[in-house]
Amino acid sequence: MISPALFLFSSFLCHVAVAGRTCPRPDDLPFATVTPLKTSYDPGEQITYFCKPGYVSRGGMRRFTCPLTGIWPINTLRCTARVCPFAGILENGAVRYTTFEYPNTISFSCNNGFFLNGTKSAQCTEEGIWSPNLPVCSPVTCPPPPTPKFAVLSAYEPLAGNRSVYGKQAVFKCLPNYAMFGNDTATCTAHGNWTQLPECREVKCPFPIRPDNGFVNYPAKEALTYKDKATYGCHDTYVLDGPEEVECNKFGNWSAQPSCKASCKVSVKKATVIFEGERVKIQEKFKNGMLHGQKVSFFCKNKEKKCSYTEDAQCIDGTFEVPSCFKEHSSLAFWKTDAWDVKPC
Ligand SMILES: *[C@@H]1O[C@H](CO)[C@@H](O)[C@H](O)[C@H]1NC(C)=O
Ligand SMILES: *[C@@H]1O[C@H](CO)[C@@H](O)[C@H](O)[C@H]1NC(C)=O
Ligand SMILES: *[C@@H]1O[C@H](CO)[C@@H](O)[C@H](O)[C@H]1NC(C)=O
Ligand SMILES: *[C@@H]1O[C@H](CO)[C@@H](O)[C@H](O)[C@H]1NC(C)=O
Ligand SMILES: *[C@@H]1O[C@H](CO)[C@@H](O)[C@H](O)[C@H]1NC(C)=O
């Protein structure tokens, strides 16, 4: 018979022998969990290290048994973050990132003329995939440009579906007799709309007024409009001052207003002058008068130096003034030398 006292003592010893070798709470490992997690383990009890979601170790998990020594074996388990597929390049855009590991987020932007077709950012998930899916940068497009009133598209190359890509142009033309205000070219902008479209307006010009001593011809129409033309002419001795043909411009005005200018009578009876680089006898060359605008050079004498110089005179609308330095000799004064026969100064 064992005394109760001995039984108690021996069970106490036994307890000490076992209790003295329990394993402590296992070390924390970064990004790993332990199951079961307790403050102490009896020898023979098992624990398992698992990497937390989003982290992986080379060997997968690690299982340990609490040894009789009560000291957990050295744990070499390393849990590292999962890495998502490379996502550092976005065509026609840019990616902002630090690393592509769980649980990082990366963000996206697109170049001018492109828009983010997808999300602004994505996260590397526990499973090592990007969520949501990576976006793309798609080109901004414009719908077909509206055609202004009284205009037609003269150049336009749309894509399939009639849309245009950023930067493409459309060129407009006005219908005949309509004048364009603004730029004939519109460009598809990065906003997906078109730059300012031109305007086509009907433009009328007043009927041209017949010039004095002349005439004007223009189309026999109810009204004269943009780009219509009128032609001018003058009667016999009159000369047109301005272009023969004028055009109705987009401001409702004619490009010019020509008039007819009178020719001049030459009062000098006898003189040699220079006309268009040649010496001519004025009384012969201009016996029918001088036309408006024609110009001659008279010879004058420098008495002191006994030489000659020239001075110009021009016919302006019926008026022709002979230079005051010019002296016309009487035809009887045959002994006098004419200025044009004197050596030049
Ligand atoms: C957006 O991207 C998808 C897939 O790349 C593409 O099929 C679609 O046409 C794009 N949308 C636009 C408006 O460009
Ligand atoms: C594109 O434009 C043409 C001519 O303006 C039209 O006939 C055609 O239906 C348009 N197509 C689409 C897809 O809008
Ligand atoms: C018309 O616009 C285009 C671009 O849209 C520009 O290159 C051109 O210089 C403009 N023309 C005029 C006359 O302003
Ligand atoms: C195009 O759209 C942008 C942005 O919405 C706006 O600021 C601009 O005025 C528009 N341009 C035209 C010509 O309508
Ligand atoms: C026509 O031209 C004249 C002179 O060049 C100018 O004073 C007038 O304002 C113009 N008229 C119009 C409608 O532009």
Automatic annotation (TrEMBL):
| Record keyword Ribonucleoprotein present | no
User: Which Gene3D superfamilies does the record cross-reference, listed alphabetically?
Assistant: Complement Module, domain 1
**For this UniProt entry, which residues form the secretion signal?**
1-19
Span of domain Sushi: 21-81, 82-139, 140-202, 203-262
Stored InterPro entries: Compl-Cell_Adhes-Reg (IPR050350), Sushi/SCR/CCP_sf (IPR035976), Sushi_2 (IPR015104), Sushi_SCR_CCP_dom (IPR000436)
* Pfam (any one): Sushi
Cell location: Secreted
State the GO CC annotations: extracellular space
A Gene Ontology molecular-function term?
heparin binding
- Tell me the keywords, alphabetical order: Disulfide bond, Glycoprotein, Heparin-binding, Lipoprotein, Repeat, Secreted, Signal, Sushi
The chain's disulfide connectivity reads: 23-66, 110-137, 205-248
Function of the protein: Binds to various kinds of negatively charged substances such as heparin, phospholipids, and dextran sulfate. May prevent activation of the intrinsic blood coagulation cascade by binding to phospholipids on the surface of damaged cells.
Name of the protein in its database record: Beta-2-glycoprotein 1
Species assigned in the record: Myotis myotis (Greater mouse-eared bat)
